[in-house]
């Protein structure tokens, strides 16, 4: 039984070929960073709403401020990563 499998030839002529260029990688990473930035803005809005609805409760105010702070950090990281990717892709494509 093992000899049968060992002697079987597999043809790999029909395997699709993928061409990976800097444009493809750049577009995929740009879309990812745009999605991350959009999520950060969404969490910024959620933090703002939580802050307004906290009604002076100190623990809820702290949670809302943390949400806003982390959302702003996410926006900065996303924009920085987007800029770095654009610089690297631009340098590789030229």
DSSP helix count?
3
The protein's oligomeric status is single chain
Gap from first CA to last CA: 55 Å
Radius of gyration: 24 Å
Percent helix, as a range, is: over 70%
Bin the strand percentage.
under 5%
Number of domains: 1
Instruction: Report the biggest beta sheet as strand number plus sense, adding barrel if it closes.
Output: none
Uncertain segments are none
Shape: elongated
Number of beta-strand segments: 0
Structural commentary:
The protein has 94 residues and is mainly alpha-helical. It has one domain. The protein has three helices and no strands. The chain has helices at 2-6, 22-52, 58-93. The protein is elongated.
Looking at this protein, list some descriptive labels.
77% helix, 3 helices, 94 residues, 0% strand, mainly alpha
Break the fold down into its secondary structure elements and pairings.
Layout: H1 2-6, H2 22-52, H3 58-93
Helix pairs in contact: 2-3
Task: Summarize it.
This protein has 94 residues and is mainly α. The chain has three helices and no strands. Helix 2 (22-52) runs antiparallel to helix 3 (58-93).
